[in-house]
Design goal:
Layout lengths: L1 H18 L1 H4 L4 H16 L1
Length: 45
């Protein structure tokens, strides 16, 4: 369940980034947080 929530958040962040909403709201750091949380999972797989 937690993984599904993470995927929904990731897709939502990517959509908001490409539509320009994250830049307008000054929340581009969401993508950095997303990348930092994905990096350890990739190392363990």
């Amino acid at each position: 369940m937690l993984l599904a929530i993470f995927y929904v958040f990731a897709v939502l962040c990517i959509i908001l980034y490409y539509t320009g909403h994250l830049k307008r709201w000054k929340c581009e750091w969401f993508l950095i947080v997303l990348a930092v949380t994905v990096f350890p999972a990739v190392l363990f797989l």
